[in-house]
Amino acid sequence: METFSSLADGFVIALTWQNLLLALLGCFLGTMMGALPGLGPSNGVAILIPLAFTLGLGATPSLILLTSVYYGAMYGGRISSILLNIPGDEPAMMTCLDGYPMAQQGRAGEALSLSGIASFVGAFLATWGLILLAPQLVKIALLFGPAEYFALFTLAFATLGGVASSNQAKTAFAAALGIGLATVGVDTQTGVPRFTFGEVHLYDGIDFLVAIVGLFALSEVFLFLEHRHGDSDAKGSKVVIGRLMPSWAVVKSCIPTMLRTSFLGFLAGVLPGAGASLGSFIAYTFEKKLVDKEGTFGKGDPRGVAAPEAGNNAAAGGALVPMLALGVPGSGTTAVLLAVLLALNITPGPLLFTQQPEVVWGLIAALFIANFMLLAMNIPMIGLFTRVLLIPPRILMPIVAMVSFVGIYGISGSTFDLMVMVGFGVMGWVLRKLDVPLVPIILGTLLGNAMENNLRRAITIRNGDWTALIDSPLSIGLWSLAAIGFILPIVVGRFVKARMRRMAKDEEGSIVD
């Protein structure tokens, strides 16, 4: 009952005109960001962070705006998958398999509406999962001491690559780079400057918002400058949308699929490092084995659209569980959201539920509202969102650059931060060329200081005895999970990614035939 009472309080906070408008704005912008191939939820949230801070919003409204962008981008990722056979982001890859054949058959409108309904079901059930599971996880997290927290941070770094990672060594390198960046500035325990090279602007360390906007948003602009062309010019105009709403018989046949795959997607989201990509893959393959008796999957079966969409949106909700309850992000986008929380002087973790319940429950209530808004917005406005695909990058990218520079200068008022942002933009561009993931760098910059402080405390309490780090069943369990989480993707991840590519390739071949 306490949970439902807290949720009711959350709705009181979320149901203000300002918060409703911010949720609506976030859903709209997020869907547009998600629809653009290549941007995805992480980039979408990163690009719009300066907007939240420039508007001078408080903690809860900022989070409502940015999580609405997150959910909106997860919805929007399917649009280019279905219409162009180009996934808006990696989790939307599986939607191409049946969504594009449906579009080829003149049923693009039906596929888009059905994917919108499946996304709604997945996200709605995942938000209930968040409400029920997060408080239970908090009770366990209250048993944590410095040694357990250090092991938990190690678990976060070890598993962040997940099965979506192409190279665990590159992920580990990126995490080490992020932790190294976190050591820049005055040491909070000894007062000694580290790696500042006499530059006073670096005494407070590197602002992670500057790092995020540089790494994600500016590097995207640099990639565009390098290629000097885009793929989205006027391709969408060739697509026939057709009838918008699927028949009730089609929706009814997809309901069991949506319920099953929402559960699977949520579980994948809660696991650190698994994320929405694994959620959509598991959902599609499980459903194909279970219900595809006539071999219709891959040829425009509506259940093949509903399964990955419900799965990846449920995973997005599930990824919020470890972020809010433990302070450890469950996916790349939640790592960016974690940065926003820290920038707002909010420390995610078990104490967040007791010390700032208005933030948590206001956010959860806003997720419900955003979900209904997205359903209401996505079906009638499909025509508008498909027009987004026509925006040429030569117009879009200057807007991204302008928002980044104006936003960061508006937050800090420092030209030095702008130079640092450009430096991170160049670094992001180089690392992308080398196929090094950017999210572990952000996570290292965010959690590096907390990880170091907990290590020092654990060792100091035991007078320098390093066995303190493995002195409790909880920490041993976390270390074991970290080891499994690092090694398992090396073995399983290759197989999963190869199979995802093979399925996409087979499908492409069948369309050509």
Automatic annotation (TrEMBL):
Keywords recorded for this protein, A-Z: Membrane, Transmembrane, Transmembrane helix
InterPro entries the UniProt entry points to: DUF112_TM
Positions of the DUF112 domain: 20-443
UniProt source species: Roseibium salinum
Chain segments annotated as transmembrane: 20-39, 45-71, 111-134, 140-164, 171-188, 208-225, 263-286, 323-347, 359-383, 395-422, 476-496
Protein's name in the database: Tripartite tricarboxylate transporter permease
Lineage of producing organism: Bacteria, Pseudomonadati, Pseudomonadota, Alphaproteobacteria, Hyphomicrobiales
